[in-house]
Design brief:
Pfam families: UvrD_C_2
Oligomer: single chain
Keywords: ATP-binding, Helicase, Hydrolase, Nucleotide-binding
Structural class: alpha/beta
Number of strands: 22
Low-confidence stretches: 158-170
Number of helices: 31
Helix content: 40-55%
Bound molecules: adenosine-5'-triphosphate
Shape: globular
Largest sheet: 7 strands, mixed
Strand content: 15-25%
Distance between the termini: 41 Å
Protein name: AAA family ATPase
Radius of gyration: 31 Å
């Protein structure tokens, strides 16, 4: 049942209902205005405080931080502050509960608006006719600029409604209205129209690995982002300290989804592509399919470990002589082979990473060299003095060079660059771990080339095996830890003294953390983003089917608690070493703790386009189900035969631009035709160039780049070339499922069999 301002008659009950809701909504906005003014006053007042001393400073900074955050939150909720109402029936009478972006209380502390993430709001999303959760009615409110423009009611009246399907949509009219809106190049939040199957995903418990598997357009991404907002709200204490990380396939995608969390009032989340997970490297390019397949394979972990051992050499391996002979100022000094071997064997057995064990190697060999020098000079030296003599020798270049050749200080970049640019080393190390000649050849690269996305997990693996000589740092940390308990006690005192503890603005641990070395200005997200070893409280991985076994190792290092949301569709896997089975990929990391939820309804693509997609899916992933489209009706997809791309494509694209009006068109092509398509459409945008390509009216993308995105109209170019790519059927499936309204397939050759439906 649905009504809006325009169709409400003079004194109709509908008009009365609108007026009543308008009054309620008006009260909420009045309250919002009061709170905003109050928060602005509080912030100004805090900023003017001039008391000195640590407690006053802490109080000022904590209050300023929280007031500023509250102010940002209050200003982000202006549009769509309240979007729903649920009516519940209790023995002692009915209750009407309003649901919105944030919670609000009136001056009497009575709740006038429930935060959408709060347990009290759950029935709004989760109730179905077969399980109404105590609701008699659910109402969606359409509000524009503080004015109630329409209502959409569902009555959960057991007398009047038949047993419904559990998957029945909630608020169908509100949902369809939001789905019909033109695309803007940025994903919007769906807080007003979350569906019950999505709500289960959003509110699932924090612990363990939640996999959200679903076909294209089933709302996996948007549900995962709402889950992040929900978790940050519900588990603020844990997540504020450890932070949350969202991993997406590329920067265009991250930009596409970047408005969702701020619109839900959450800004403190780290968003990274896989190519950015290793601080200091920003990889965007990909390796060719064959190389990517090798680099993603779990054998690479063995290869990296073996490459490190390969750099730990005896004098014979490094210089061709059994003894270590070094030319120093005093003359040639010699450490016998047996002594060298003893030091190196011991170092290899130490339970230490390579760079940490180096300290032992260097110290021990310097002592041996010091002894050798004293023999050469016939000047006996006491054992106690060896370190000093060694220290002096360390300043002689030949000594450093010799020790570096035996056990070098290695950065991950140096290890991988040296290995991949040295076919002999690759052969030596590769053979040890069982890597065949073809795979070894695929790894050889020019050291001057930039890192690829597929290199990043290898660098991360190397960093793990190499370790860092962080003994100074650790000594500092030990001292800091000793102070920490004291600081937490002190912070607790400050919180109690200032009354901040009662306001629940902050806990003592978080306050103590904030005032440690780094000072209060850096947010958790900033600190986490720069630290490779940061352990996040929760990690969300989107388009997760693209992750190789090596990439999973990288992600898992960032979340030792294994609290993850993994979002993807194994039918869309395009990358060479991508995931085919969630269980195989994830169970080893969290045995018994992997839970798969399936989303089955497609909110993006109308049924006529999904019929085309279904034919492609049978080829790409036989046995996988095509999700049901919410929208039955839609423009018929079409095939257009062109004499050539330059002659025909601009006309097809112009027709699409005209057909969709304000919306966005994507031209999706194979890697092979990319340059030709770009040339044929000189005014179309490309990702990675200035500005936001997705906000332009026409953008050209490869199938890989189009993953996770959506457009009002999609023109797929030369489908046979897409099919000919490795995992080409998956790529074509991705391409044809990006459209929200129109799909055109432009081709110069015959249409491939899977698209025969478009002939005629
Ligand atoms: N409950 C909902 N209300 C309104 N819009 C929705 C809802 N669920 C999903 N959508 C919309 O459907 C579209 C597809 O959602 P999303 O991109 O999250 O799907 P996906 O499953 O991640 O797709 P893909 O696998 O193709 O990347 C988006 O525009 C999203 O806003």
């Amino acid at each position: 049942m649905q009504f809006c301002q325009e169709d409400a008659g003079e004194a109709s009950p509908e008009r009365a209902a609108l007026a009543a809701e308008q009054a309620r909504i008006g009260t909420m906005y009045e309250r919002l205005d009061v709170l905003r003014a109050h928060t602005a006053d509080q912030l100004a007042e805090v900023q003017l405080q001039t008391h000195t001393g640590y407690a006053a400073l802490v109080e000022r900074e904590t209050r300023a931080y929280e007031h500023a955050r509250r102010r940002a939150q209050l200003s982000a909720v202006e549009e769509g502050l309240c979007f729903g109402r649920i009516d519940l029936s209790y023995d002692d009478g009915p209750e009407a509960r309003y649901v919105g972006r944030i919670g609000l209380r009136d001056t009497e502390h009575e709740t006038i608006l429930v935060d959408w993430r709060a347990p009290a709001a759950r029935p709004f999303y989760a109730a179905t006719p077969s399980d109404p959760l105590g609701l008699t009615r659910r109402r969606h409110l359409r509000v524009r600029r503080r004015r109630v423009t329409g209502l959409d009611d569902e009555v959960f009246d057991s007398e009047g409604l038949s047993e419904g399907d559990r998957r029945q949509l909630v608020g169908e009219a509100a949902l369809l209205e939001s789905l019909h809106r033109g695309r803007t190049g940025r994903m919007a939040d769906i807080v007003a129209t979350i569906q019950s199957e999505q709500d289960r995903v959003i509110r699932a418990r924090l612990a363990g690995v939640l996999v959200v598997q679903g076909g294209p357009g089933t709302g996996k991404t948007v549900a995962a982002l709402h889950r992040a907002a929900y978790l940050l709200y519900t588990h603020r204490n844990v997540l504020e300290r450890r932070g949350a990380l969202v991993v997406g396939p590329n920067t265009a995608f991250l930009r596409y989804v970047s408005d969702v969390l701020p619109s839900l009032g959450e800004t403190d989340v780290v968003m990274r592509t896989l190519g950015e997970l290793f601080p200091g490297v920003e990889a965007t390019g990909h390796d060719p399919h064959a190389t990517a397949a090798v680099k993603g394979s779990p054998l690479m972990a063995d290869l990296v470990a073996a490459a490190v051992v390969d750099r730990q050499r005896t004098p014979r391996e490094a210089f061709g002589s059994g003894d270590l002979v070094v030319e120093v100022d005093a003359g040639a000094i010699t450490v016998p082979e047996a002594a060298c071997r003893r030091v190196l064997d011991t170092a290899r057995k130490l339970p230490l990473a390579h760079n940490t064990a180096r300290k032992y190697v260097v110290r021990s060999l310097l002592s041996e060299l010091a002894r050798a020098e004293s023999t050469l000079l016939a000047r006996p030296v006491q054992d106690d003095d060896l370190p000093f003599v060694g220290e002096r020798l360390w300043h002689e270049a030949p000594v450093r060079r010799a020790l570096d050749a035996l056990w070098p200080d290695l950065s991950p970049q140096r290890l991988i660059r040296d290995l991949f640019s040295d076919p002999e080393a690759l052969e030596r190390v590769g053979e040890l771990v069982g890597l065949d000649a073809e795979s070894r050849a695929a790894l050889v690269r020019d050291p001057a080339l930039p890192w690829t996305v597929e290199d990043v997990p290898l660098l991360d693996e190397a960093a793990d095996v190499l370790g860092r000589d962080d003994s100074d740092e650790r000594a500092r940390e030990r001292r800091a830890e000793e102070n920490r308990a004291e600081e937490v006690r002190f912070a607790q005192g400050v919180l109690e003294f200032t009354g901040l503890a009662e306001d629940e603005m902050m806990n003592a641990e978080a306050l103590a953390d904030r005032h440690r070395d780094e000072g209060p200005r850096r947010t958790t997200a900033e600190r986490a983003g720069e630290d490779r070893e940061w352990a996040y409280g929760h990690v969300i991985v989107d388009e997760a089917q693209e992750l190789s076994p090596m990439a999973w190792r990288t992600v898992m290092r960032r979340v030792p608690t294994r609290s993850l949301t993994v979002v993807g569709d194994v039918a869309q896997t395009g990358s060479a070493a991508g995931t085919r089975s969630w269980t195989d990929a994830l169970e080893p990391y969290a045995p018994g703790k992997v839970h798969v939820e399936r989303l089955l309804v497609n909110y993006r693509t109308p049924a006529p386009i999904m019929a085309v997609a279904a034919d492609v899916l049978r080829e790409a992933a036989p046995g996988e189900e095509v999700p049901d489209s919410v929208r039955e009706e839609g423009d018929a997809p079409r095939g257009v035969r062109l004499s050539s791309l330059p002659d025909g494509l601009p006309g097809v694209v112009a027709e699409e631009v005209a057909a969709i009006g304000e919306g966005r068109v994507a031209v999706v092509t194979s890697d092979r035709h990319l340059a030709e398509v770009v040339e044929a459409l000189p005014r179309a945008a490309r990702p990675g160039t200035a500005g936001d390509a997705l906000e332009e009216s026409v953008v050209v993308l490869t199938a890989t780049e189009s993953k996770g995105l959506e457009f009002d109209s999609v023109v797929v170019v030369e489908p046979d070339a897409l099919l000919a790519q490795p995992r080409g059927a998956n790529d074509l499936y991705v391409a044809v499922t990006r459209a929200t309204r129109r799909l055109t397939v432009a081709h110069t050759a015959d249409l491939p069999g899977v698209l025969k439906r478009l002939e005629g």
